[in-house]
Amino acid sequence: MRIKNLASLKKAASREIILAELPETIRLTHFANAKAFKINELVRSIHQQSFEWYGFTLALREAPELVIDLGLPVNEQNREEYVSVEAEKIAAYRDSLPDHLIINGWIHSHGDLSYRHFSPTDATNQAVVLDYVTAGLRQPVAKVEIAIQDFVFLCQGSYRPEDLRRGSVSLITDSPVTRASLWETVYGGFCYAIVIGDEGWHEQEIHYKRRGILTGQTSVGSKKDAELVLIDDGRLLTNSDIEMLGSEISSKLSPVTSVPPKLESM
After folding, report:
1. pLDDT at res. 263
2. What pTM does this model have?
3. Cα distance between residue 107 and residue 56, in whole Å
4. Which of 77, 154, 180, 195 has its CA 20 to 30 A from that of 26?
5. Residue 79 pLDDT > 90
6. Mean pLDDT calculated for residue range 206-228
7. Where are the alpha helices (DSSP H) in 48-161?
């Protein structure tokens, strides 16, 4: 049950109990890392030019913090300096995954651009991806006290109708209560974001979203320049993997040569 007006009753100095920590580093297998830069290489060789593309970072459902693979969906727009991500496409790709895999973030390339950072255009795409990813990865991360002024305690069968006019919130119990506190569960999720370039550079961030189950209060945050930790899981990028990647790039990525409506801000 959501109490719409409860948020206005919450004081700034509420107590919080941490239930779980969200990741502060991005753990990525050597296989996934090699695959990302191989896509860049194949884009140049297959399409005879460098342009932006995007994909999703994938994890096992039981280990959502470790990126084990990359998924390449059909890209909506591939331009030299611009790529867009649509919510419907994320949902469609998520539904195409086997049950044991989940999306825990996204990755895109700036190709041969000299701009080696996330751009305002990326931030727009990131907001779209964040909503979808955190919806699937959310977990209880905290209990937060909802501090209420004029909290009135009433006992079932022993209060009068006019007693309900008192206080901002009334708690009706089956036995007398003189003191209580109200704590809501806060659910949180994370989303990885990685940008790479043809010359081998990379930059990464972790984005977070928290939402209170009662108040509906939502907050977003991010960890800029997050550390990337490579993990050896024994899997290597084989010739068969590269051949399959080439087929995907040919069918899913198509460069657009017209003038883009929006360019990466430099």
Report:
1. 46
2. 0.84
3. 6
4. 77
5. no
6. 95
7. 87-96, 120-137
Please state, in angstroms and as integers, the Cα–Cα distance from residue 98 to each residue in 107, 130, 192, 214, following that order: 20, 21, 20, 33
Instruction: Give the amino acid at 178.
Output: T
Distance CA 37, CA 194 (A): 12
3-state secondary structure 212-265: ECCCCCEEEEEECCCEEEEECCCCCCCHHHHHHHHHHHHHHCCECCCCCCCCCC
Whether 170 and 155 have beta carbons less than 8 Å apart is answered as: no
Partners of 208 in beta bridges: 190, 221
Written in H, E and C, the secondary structure of 108-140 is: EECCCCCCCCCCHHHHHHHHHHHHHHHHHHCEE
Average predicted confidence (pLDDT) for the chain: 89
Q: How far apart are CA 35 and CA 230, in angstroms?
A: 13
Task: Write the pLDDT tens digit of every residue in 223-252.
Answer: 999 999 999 999 999 999 999 999 999 999
Please report which residue ranges of 48-203 form alpha helices under DSSP H: 87-96, 120-137
**Assigned token pair, 237:** 């990028």
How far is 131 from 97, CA to CA, in rounded Å? 18
Q: Compute the distance between CA of residue 28 and CA of residue 20 in angstroms, rounded to an integer.
A: 21
User: In this predicted structure, what is the pLDDT of residue 113?
Assistant: 87
Give the Cβ contact number of residue 162 at 10 Å: 7
Q: Which of 137, 131, 162 is nearest to 66 (CA)?
A: 137
pLDDT in tens, 26-64: 999 999 999 999 999 999 999 888 888 999 999 999 999
Within a 10 A sphere around the Cβ of 126, how many other Cβ atoms? 22
